[in-house]
Amino acid sequence: MKPEVLLSRISVVLCRPSHPGNIGAAARAMKTMGLSDLRLVTPKQFPDPEADTRATGAVDLLANAKITTTLADALAGSVFAVAVSARQRDLGPAVGTPRETMARLLAAATQGTVALVFGNETVGLSNEEVLQCQAAVTIPTNPDFSSLNLGAAVQVLSYECRMAAFAGAAPLREQLTTPFTAPPATHDEIEGLYGHLEAVMTETGFFNPAQPGRLLPKLRRLFGRAELERDEVNILRGILASTQQRTGHGRKG
Amino acid sequence: MKPEVLLSRISVVLCRPSHPGNIGAAARAMKTMGLSDLRLVTPKQFPDPEADTRATGAVDLLANAKITTTLADALAGSVFAVAVSARQRDLGPAVGTPRETMARLLAAATQGTVALVFGNETVGLSNEEVLQCQAAVTIPTNPDFSSLNLGAAVQVLSYECRMAAFAGAAPLREQLTTPFTAPPATHDEIEGLYGHLEAVMTETGFFNPAQPGRLLPKLRRLFGRAELERDEVNILRGILASTQQRTGHGRKG
């Protein structure tokens, strides 16, 4: 697959950005590296002239930006999502370096649409948002001054995407992805599995929604690491449905 | 030599910058990656409040910036200088990639002070300025939109400097991640899970031992990829046991 096509499959998702100027800077950063799919989850102020100014020649990305109210909507259809996080979260996917993680992202892009998910300038991503992603990345910074601007973070990771897309021979990337013979599950399919699992655990009494504890995040962490295929989601949901038929819950057989 | 010391030996030289905001963005970008030595060759407007605003917590780099009237003065004492250029110049040093060139820069930094030289936002470096450098670097960009902001260019190259400086140090992964705090499941614990899963699937009728097909290998492949922890095996077996109690199979509650 051509590097340009792989890059076109990467969406950059900005969750709750506060400053329209940063949205513009992100668009410009993306376009310089050949990325084009910008998605905004409840931006505070958009569209905005300041965004257009900072985007300079990348206003087309702003005009085509998809705006959603939840991260789940922004990720619908994506086969792999990477959370950009300044720190390791409890139960979150293990954080990798930009280089190795963008290589994984590009490998996944051979299978479908993938996403790079950035949090708000001040508070970053919530734990719930991080847990919707299959991997996490931290940009190494000076521990005494780690205040990377949002546009700058988009620039560094878009640059690593371009380096990964053009690095090495295409055959090598295809070798990396051969273990996955079947199509990967999409974000919404995986969320469907989690919903089904939660329903069954609630029915059996294993899970108490009034006292959720850390059970659901732990299961997300486990299955997030596995990078589920569509076929596997279907198998797991088949097992869940079969237990429901026995207990009288769920769809009728 | 410690990575922090090597990074402190790199000066970023901005030649004739037009916009004070870009000087501030460059300072912030440098400081996030552990660089601190900013030099300005005949800046159009400096100091300036816009530079301070964009620098945020990196105003100390602005306060300490050395201002000169020629590039030669800014490079005095440097043992190696890299010109940042969007194109190969006639007679200029061959342009390299950021990764390989920043590795050369860091190697040279073990010998003394080194410099990264950026041109004016619109016209770049003059041929005479490029020829004062021993190497040149081009940041790969989208050929249809190569308009990298000056601050963004400083960010990408400062990031590569940091990556090169720490490349020989403790693996970044170890610095970044607290991998898996929980102990991994042992072989027999995982086999116990597979046995339990098979029993439940057989009880519900989802799995027919007389016609096993590829169901069990597929589940092994899935959970094998996940590299299960002991705690996770216990959770999964707890879910399985809870469905059995409902159906009247399994151990008595």
TrEMBL record, chains A, B:
Q: tRNA/rRNA methyltransferase SpoU type domain: from which residue to which, for each copy?
A: 10-159
What domain of life?
A: Bacteria
Q: Known catalysed reaction(s)?
A: cytidine(32) in tRNA + S-adenosyl-L-methionine = 2'-O-methylcytidine(32) in tRNA + S-adenosyl-L-homocysteine + H(+); uridine(32) in tRNA + S-adenosyl-L-methionine = 2'-O-methyluridine(32) in tRNA + S-adenosyl-L-homocysteine + H(+)
Q: What is its EC number?
A: 2.1.1.200
Task: Output the Gene Ontology terms for molecular function.
Answer: RNA binding; tRNA (cytidine(32)-2'-O)-methyltransferase activity; tRNA (cytidine(32)/uridine(32)-2'-O)-methyltransferase activity
**GO biological process entries:** tRNA nucleoside ribose methylation
The UniProt entry, under InterPro entries, shows: Alpha/beta_knot_MTases, RNA_MeTrfase_TrmJ/LasT, SpoU_MeTrfase, tRNA_m1G_MTases_N
The alphabetical list of record keywords is: Cytoplasm, Methyltransferase, S-adenosyl-L-methionine, Transferase, tRNA processing
Gene Ontology annotations for the cellular component aspect, listed alphabetically? cytosol
Which residues does UniProt call coiled coil? none
Give its localization: Cytoplasm
Indicate whether Cell membrane appears among the record's keywords. no
UniProt family annotation = Belongs to the class IV-like SAM-binding methyltransferase superfamily. RNA methyltransferase TrmH family.
What does the function comment of this entry state? Catalyzes the formation of 2'O-methylated cytidine (Cm32) or 2'O-methylated uridine (Um32) at position 32 in tRNA.
**Whom does it interact with, and what assembly results?**
Homodimer.
Q: What is this protein called?
A: tRNA (cytidine/uridine-2'-O-)-methyltransferase TrmJ
Q: Organism, per UniProt?
A: Azonexus hydrophilus
Q: Lineage from the top down? A: Bacteria, Pseudomonadati, Pseudomonadota, Betaproteobacteria, Rhodocyclales
